[in-house]
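Reviewer 2 asked us to include a model.

Predict the structure of this chain.
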Amino acid sequence: QVRLVESGGGLVQAGGSLRLSCAASGRTFFYAMGWFRQAPGKNRECVASIVWSTGDTYDGDSVKGRFTISRAIGKNTVYLQMNSLKPEDTAVYYCTAHQVGSTEYNIWGQGTQVTVSS
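Predicted model (structure tokens):
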């Protein structure tokens, strides 16, 4: 069974930085991993994603130039470096994995809260 465990969330002032980590265990045959977020009253949105084999990345428009996704293959871990944080970045951030053979992101972590104060 695959398990994703996020860490690194917390409270930060606007303009600050945080780094989220997501460690995967189990059958880690992934096509891609990503970070989604959901703020109260809003739909879940894709923040960033990375193709596991090539390292190709995608960044959502709202975070381009501020957030960077990366991976450590040997550690089965994906990171999200978040800089220049804004109050509108406040949300629960979820790590997710798209397993090889699946047609979508099918494994989800429990989520970690990020709160940015103004």
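The longest strand covers residues 30-38. The radius of gyration is 13 Å. We have added this to the supplementary material.
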